[in-house]
Amino acid sequence: VQLQAFGGGLVQAGGSLRLSCVVSGRPFTGYTMAWFRQAPGKEREFVAVLKWGNSNTFVRDSVKGRFTISRDNDKSTVSLQMNNLMPEDTAVYYCNSLYPKSHSWGRGTLVTVSS
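Structure (tokenized):
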């Protein structure tokens, strides 16, 4: 199974980015998908989840109202729309599935937000 995130870059505070993650090597449908991030010198943390079945979403408090998770089953892709970015959003972003199982971490994508 491969998880490859892309779409990161350097953006000024208040700007937007859209991240995508392509999943290959297993069926995409049936899996609850999530985004995580790891800032320099910090532990990896949960950002957002999209549940398979009812499509409910949940995001961490610090990104509520700014980040939106979505998926395209035809393209085996999960996306993260990030608006009104803040310097504290600077991190490497990863995707992974939460249920029914997670996989080894794949390639992340670096997001750098300048003040």
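Strands lie at 2-6, 9-12, 17-24, 32-38, 45-50, 57-59, 67-72, 77-82, 91-99, 109-114. The mean pLDDT is 96.
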